Amino acid sequence: MINQLNNSHNRHLIPFIVFTIYIFVVFNAFSQDDVFENKLAKIEQLDNKETVIEELEKLLKNKNLTHHQRFWLHQKIGDSYFIIGKNDKAITHANLTLSIAENHNLSDEKAVAYSDLGAYQTVTGNYDEALVLGKKALSHFKSIDTSLKQAETLDWMGTSHYYLNEPQDALKYYLLSASIFRQHDSDKQLSWTLSNIANLYEKFGDFEKAIIYFEEILKIEEKSENDNGIARRKGYLGELYFKQREYKLAESYLLDAIISFEGSDEHWLLSRYYFSLAKVYNSTDKPNEAIVYLQKSKMLASEDMWFYSAILTEYAKALFHKGDILNAQSYLVQSNVVANENNNIDTLDENIALQSLFYAVGGTHNKAISFLISYQNNLKKNYNLNLSSTLNESLNLQLKNYESQQLTRQVSELTLNKKLLQVEKEQEMQFRNNIIISLVLLFIFGFFLYLRNRDQLLKKRLEKQVKQRTHELESANRKLEELSLLDGLTGVHNRRSFDRDLAKVWQESKQGLGTFSLLMADVDYFKLYNDTYGHVAGDDALKSIASVLKESIRDEDRVYRYGGEEFAIIFNNHDLNSINNTFTRIQNEINNLNIEHKESEFSVVTMSAGICAFNMSTESEEELIKQTDIHLYKAKELGRNQLINNLVS
Questions:
Q1: Which residue of 85, 174, 200, 271 lies most exposed, with the fewest beta carbons within 10 A?
Q2: Total count of domains within the chain
Q3: Is residue 442 part of a domain?
Q4: What is the mean predicted confidence (pLDDT) over 240-254?
Q5: Which residue in 632, 558, 544 sits closest to 589, CA to CA?
């Protein structure tokens, strides 16, 4: 009985003992994690990265570390090596983190490991490999909450695409990265990414968008009260406004930047902004002011001779503005010497154009025309070089292979010639070997036939490859031409396409081969919409409206983005009453979009339009556009959200 009670008591104690041990193990694990985290935090606060690495490696020797802890130690060591520029060691530790994550199925850590490896490969120039790693990292980020790391990954993937000469893909990744950084108020990283976006838009020639992003960066710098950053951004904005030909804003921003940097050790930037301000003054007929700032720029740029040549050219322009042709010519000669020594091709090309202008003013017209032709030829040469670079790269390898084969053939021929000489010598000495010599000659003849046939085959193959590459280049050019006729934001045809198509249908209509009508439409109160909801929302609204316009017309008609919020449609062989019905359908579809617009009396985004049909009495395309614009403005005056034409309103 007593034994039964003891057994029963022991059975009840077992769950309690197991539970106690479990609580102890869990508590001990959490306690160890806290100790580890505290040690890691203290090490990361050290300023010297070499010391950080030493301390982390000491911590790594602990045999009781969990897989998770070992992963993060290798990650921190790799990151520290990366910061001090030892990329090989950084990659080694990143590979160790990936191995740990894969072997122990650590999903979150696997994403981080791929991201770190991709970042290091980007810095070392292995852009293709970096993009592969980036895509793997992003596939894991979809299921875990590591948004900032995802944004960093998108950012360096954009950088990889940029260096692979894929700017459109780079822009896509930068924009995605910036949107995440904004959500997390990560201003420092956001500022860097926005700078990359602005630089790409500047490269595309879209200075307006570049300015928008640099204005956002300026606000970030002002928020953080970073005086140096504020001055830099104002300088960049001044240069962009100059390219946009908004000279007053350019002058204002550049003067602010110059005032901030004068007296500092930022000599190169100060010289650059002096130079940019001088360009503003030269463009606004203020040569005296330009000369003042060019003198200051020269003093600071004496070590950068590439830049110095550009300053000398701008100096020549200012003197030319003043009518001092002799001194302007002298500065241009100096600029040519310096630009030649430092391979400043852009300045040399600009100098050719200026020299042509100087000769024209001086009355030496033959020389002026000669220099102008030289300048035009340089422009064409640069264009053709860019256009054919892809074909040249693909053909270079083929030509190298062909040259190698030709060299092999020449060596073979030399060897055979040597054998021939030997045979001839033997023939002179011994006539007995006539049969052997005949066989040798027959072999040689056959070998020559073989070489000839092989050369013909090689020639045909090369011609085929060249033809194929030429076809590919023509196809690429056609695609580029098609892309150049599309608006980058809305996907409809752009102003360039409009001008081309309008000229075509105008000529056809004048020749009696058909007729057309032109509709000009404008989004109502669009500036107020942008001011109220922001440019991103404005872009989205334009894309939605463009989509409605595209889907509402016939295949033979075409929609264009004429500029800003203004669209145009060319209707071919379509009567005005039917067009009026089409526009009514467009209005209904836009209203159905229900895009809120609090500043409009309609409470939603609407569109006004004017239309004119082709008439033989109309003098030109420009006159037709003017008449259509008059109807559009009439639609605005009569309350907006309507169509006005010369028959139907």
A1: 85
A2: 2
A3: yes
A4: 91
A5: 544
Q: Are residues 521 and 618 in the same domain?
A: yes
Return the ∠ at Cα 544 (arms to 518 and 244), rounded to 5°: 75
CB 287 within 8 A of CB 323: no
> How many CB atoms sit inside 10 A of residue 558's CB?
20
Q: Looking at 565, 566, 619, 621, which residue is catalytic?
A: 565
d(CA 241, CA 255): 13
Answer yes or no: 565 catalytic. Answer: yes
pLDDT of amino acid 529: 95
Residues 6+ apart with CB under 8 A from 51: none
Nearest to 570 by CA among 642, 520, 528, 618: 520
Sign of the four-CA dihedral 431, 435, 438, 443:
negative
Q: Residues 271-293: pLDDT tens digits?
A: 888 889 988 998 888 989 988 88
597 in a structural domain: yes
Chain-centre distance of CA 452, in angstroms? 49
- Mean pLDDT (the chain) is 80
> What pLDDT was estimated at residue 151?
84
The identity of residue 181, as a single letter, is: F
- Whether 196 has a pLDDT exceeding 90, the answer reads yes
524 and 590 part of one domain? yes
Cα angle: 499, vertex 631, 529; to 5 degrees: 80
Q: Within a domain: residue 196?
A: no
Residue with tokens 């990359």: 196
Least confident of 189-198, 264-273, 448-457: 448-457
Confidence bin at 389 (pLDDT 50/70/90): very low
Report pLDDT digits (tens) over 91-131.
998 898 889 888 888 777 888 888 888 888 898 888 998 89
In a domain, 533, yes or no: yes
What residues contact residue 56 under an 8 Å CB cut-off, 6+ apart?
43, 73, 76, 77, 80
Statement to judge: residues 528 and 608 lie in one domain? yes
437, 464, 484 - which closes a domain:
484
In the predicted model, is pLDDT for residue 550 greater than 90?
A: yes
526 lies in the same domain as 450? no
Which residues, at least 6 apart from 447, have a Cβ–Cβ distance to it below 8 Å?
A: 416
Residues 47-96 pLDDT 10s: 787 888 888 888 878 888 888 788 888 888 888 888 888 888 889 988 98
Q: Which domain holds residue 389?
A: 382-484
Smallest CA-to-CA distance from 279 within 260, 254, 258 is with 254
Distance of CA 66 to the CA centre of its chain: 43
Looking at the fold, whether 504 and 455 belong to one and the same domain comes out as no
User: Same structural domain for residues 473 and 510?
Assistant: no
Which pLDDT score is estimated for 417?
44
473 and 564, same domain (yes or no): no
The pLDDT of residue 205:
87
Rounded distance, CA 183 to CA 306, Å? 42
The CATH number linked to 611 is 3.30.70.270
Domain final residue pick, 484, 514, 538: 484
Residues 508 and 609 in one domain: yes
3-state secondary structure of 549: helix
**Tokens 């580890």 sit on residue:** 36
Phi, psi for 568 (deg, rounded to 5): -135, 150
How many C-beta neighbours within 10 Å does residue 8 have? 10
Residue with tokens 């500065």: 331
What CA–CA distance (Å, rounded) separates 102 from 206? 45
pLDDT tens-digit map of 143-172: 545 577 888 888 989 999 999 999 999 999
